[in-house]
Automatic annotation (TrEMBL):
Coiled coil stretches, renumbered: none
Cross-referenced SUPFAM superfamilies: Immunoglobulin
Residues covered by the Ig-like domain: 19-112, 138-217, 228-319, 323-414, 419-457
Protein name stated in the entry: Ig-like domain-containing protein
Biased composition (Basic and acidic residues): 660-671
GO annotation (BP), single: cell-cell adhesion
Pfam families the UniProt entry points to: Ig_3, V-set
The keyword Nuclease is assigned to this record: no
Signal peptide annotation: 1-19
The species this protein was found in: Gopherus evgoodei
Gene3D superfamilies membership: Immunoglobulins
Cross-referenced PANTHER family: PROTEIN SIDEKICK, PROTEIN TURTLE HOMOLOG A
Region (Disordered): 550-574, 652-671
SMART domains xref list: IG, IGc2
Amino acid sequence: LGWLMRGLLVLVKSPCAGPAGNGQVESQAVVGRVGESVILGCDLLNAEEARSHLYVIEWVRFGFLLPIFIKFGLYSPRVDPEFVGRVRIQEGASLRIDLLRAEDQGWYECRVLFLDRHSNDDEFQNGTWTHLTVNSAPTFLGTPPALVEVPEKEPLSLTCSAIGNPQPVIVWKRNDRAIESGDKVQVSNGTLRITSVERASAGIYTCHASSKEGSVIHTTRLLVQGSPVIVVPPQNITVNITQDAFLACQAEAYPGNLTYSWFQGSSNVYHLSHLQSRVRVLVDGSLLLQKTTPDDAGKYTCVPSNGLWKPPSASAFITVLYPAQVTTMPPETLLPKGMQGMIQCPTKANPPLLSISWTKDGHPLKLDKFPGWSMAPDGSIVIATGNDDALGLYTCTPYNSYGTAGASAPTRVLLKDPPMFTTRPKEEYFQEVGRELVIPCAAQGDPPPMVTWTKVGGLGILQYLSLPFFKEMSVDGDWPPREEPCYLGPSSDPLLAKDQSNWALSLPGQPLSLLRGSLTSQSSGRGSVSFLRPPSLALSLGGTYLSSPLGETEGWQSEGESRGSMAEEGMPRKELAVATVSKRRNTSVDENYEWDSEFALESDILDALQLYLDALEASGSPQALASPEVRCMALREEFLAYRRRREVAKQRRQRMSSHSYDERFEQATLL
């Protein structure tokens, strides 16, 4: 036992000698493959020494506390548990290892102790170190699942790891092509990362681990959860009436629990009474429409859905060709007596309508026998003047390139008196801003008429006050009147009587009926006035409400009282017909000016107004209102004439005495 204990103590010290490279012995290398066998050679025991059996053979593995194999004489060897059944002595002291494992790779040392001779520790440690290399094909340590489901637009990471000797290289492939890193995909250390999964990302991904010893492959199938994608959309079709119509629609999606819905316009085809009994949605999503009718024509939309997100849609049109036909002919058609009327033939046709033939009282209708009768482009009969000739029973028959579906049901034409007004609106209404204005209008007739309202264009001066000329025109000055003033008395017109407290003007020979206008300051709110304005008169009254720039005498009258003053000593006193302006703001009129709170109505205006009255008496009837364009030109001419007269007045003033005059310009601006 002493020799055995001495051997064990030496073994505890010796494992570091070979791998540490102490220079006493040379190492050797042995290469094997996993699953195969190798022999670790040892030449310390020759054949003659082996016959005595007085020796101990030990194989030491670097990193192990005890020898992995100990053999003494004819006794059974002691073997490390990891090598049990796989090691034995062969050819002297050499060690045979069967069924190599990757973990068998490492350093091994052979030692022989002879029991029949004296030996020291150094002699016992003279064995040879051998390095065993075990090559192995790649083996996966970790792989992703064989089936991966990811919602659309979510990130994805697939990791694949493997071992082997030499160390295998891992490559990810799709469709047998290596995946390279890019903006949306990164591959690093066996991990495949997709930043945002798209529908196109779905497919088969393979992880390849390879070395010179071989390769292994792992396959992962990626399924992307998302709304369907239509791969076969419907196409426009044209069918003849009573033929079947077929629209294809196929979609792909995961999950694949697809349901197909079809719509005509915005209504589900199964919810339309005229389609319910003739329509079918097939398993593959196609639409079958049997025995088409004209009402089946239109837009059809396929909507596949699997319950995820917003479903897609695709549309196509069904065109149905059919002969021209009458839709609904009314049993009675009413025409107004003495007025233009129309007998209509309501039709539909595809291809388009070509012609319509009519019968009256069972005989073909010949329009040339009825003066004033004609046929409209849509085939309706237009009667210029409704009379007894129009009475009768009519039918119409439409035609297109496919023919006709037949004549219409008869319609009886009756004459009726046209509607008449029972209450007519007045020609003019005045109302303050912000208050309610009611304009009555009523009519009667058989059948009861429908009353509608329309606003026709602009009114009066509003049309031409918007022109650039009047937007810029301002008048600062006055005309020097030379005529004798006259008095304008109260008006008998009820419209004028309303504002009678604001007037103290009259004309020689009271005007019987003059049109009434209004002047309103909307921007400054300085006042308002009602005035007399002849509509066909060339001169505009609004442009002549100006006071004298020369400080001439002004006479003011109100409620029968008058006052006057001399503007300058030595100047003749002139009394002018004037008006006192109401201080109440009135913004209910359509013709608007701006003026100072007091102004003179001068003789030029009165002369022009008197000419207008004389013209009325001569003609015996009022003239038609001039158009806004004509009045615009007249106002412009009046303004230019006024400026010429003002220049003459300034020149006359310069010729007067050297006394200083107070020049007063009151500005009237046409808005």
